[in-house]
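Build the 3D complex.
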Amino acid sequence: MLDPKLIRESPDLVRAAIAKKHLSVDLEAVLSADAAWRALLQDVERLRGLQKAANTAMATLPKGSPEFLAKLAEMKAVAAQVKERDAGLKAAEEACREAMLTLPNLPHASVPEGRTPEENVVFSSHGDPASAGPSAVAHWDIPGFSRLFDFERGSKVTGAGFPFFIGEGARLVRALINFFLEEDARAGYVEVSPPIFVNAASATATGQLPDKEGQMYETTPDRLFAVPTAEVPLTNFFREEILEESALPVRRCAYTPCFRREAGSYGKDVRGLNRLHQFDKVELLKWVHPSSSYDELDRLRDDVEGLLRKLGLPYRVLLMCGGDLGFAQSKKYDLEVWAAGQKRWLEVSSCSNFEAFQARRAQIRYRSKETGRAELLHTLNGSGLAVPRVLAAILENNLEPDGRVRIPEALVPHFGKSHLSFG
RNA sequence: GGAGGGAUGGCCGAGUGGCUUAAGGCGCAGGUUUGCUAAACCUGUUAACCAGAAAUGGUUACGGGGGUUCGAAUCCCCCUCCCUCCGCCA
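Done.
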């Protein structure tokens, strides 16, 4: 959420942010909810002040004395008033908080204007999409594909979008996870293996609840949520904590399976490995000093790009425009890898700076050396990387005439051989 | 899953209805003393929110939530977490 003081004192900034993100949010309703809450607060605090003063007086009066009894009668009336208005105050506070949660994070000045994904800016391009040749095929059309990636049995056992990975298919998944983790560790991210179920408080702090509840798998009767990304348990690691400034920046990476219901998806988006309900991903997280978060965003993007460069896959970096930025992000880059057979770009990473938006909601702070006070820090995250789509791109770009797939050199030590075959 | 014990400030730890933001100690900051260091002594040392240009004032907070009461760290109810023992288990 945004700083309530900012909303109150600079509503124009918030209004501009809403416009740049092309959202329709009723800022006036937020402002009036806030004003109503503050008016009630002052009223209740005045009454509490009366109670407190009376309490001090009554402590020294002899019990049963006329003065004591007079005070007591007087305070009974005040107590009734407090009780009544306190209920209203709580409701107003809740309403105010809920209203404020509807306000999006402010986009950074460097975020381009735009409404739709088409207006995202191509920030950079790497490698030659044409190198695989015009005869490249979609990965699901590669002869023997279903022997290594068994969607039918996955559907039988669990449901659509939960394939089995078999033999060299499974091995390639494991090689990619291993490669990502080792490269990320080399870049300074400490590996973490987090819980893959989180409670409602955690899902709320990172914004999955209450709005995106339908996107998560939920367990009964414990009401735990299967993580849609390792971002959720990782970000919550420091929830409601105060870090030492000298500990910043904290950089971590985690491999987890990710679970997404993907309600409403359809068509070629969901074919093959493009979009699964369960998939493997390595996520990168940073907790940084506010003054360095944009430098850290550049470094994060560069770290993730390094993975794609080493894999030798053609990719491009998009700078997201205001309309495609997302609710909580201040600035976001999407990394897309070229799928030569499908002749389309697949998003394999999203690198975002949330500034203090997540940190305020999750109450993650650092102790400022300068002021001695606890200040909100900035959080960033990015995938490094999503496995199935990278795998799909390898299959489509590296398919050789003999029907085998060349394994990128950087991956060979992890995979154990130079080619994957479907036979 | 069963039985019991616990949760107080940065830390340890008192406190069983009122003048308690909370004794005492440790730690930390400033000061005095002092060839230097150490010690000793003195003073200070929570956070959030609201109002205010500011100085400052006010309210809240003793794991979380609800209740009793004029008044709750203290009494009652529910929940969470931690510890010990038993059971089960990769």
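Chain A has a mean pLDDT of 91.
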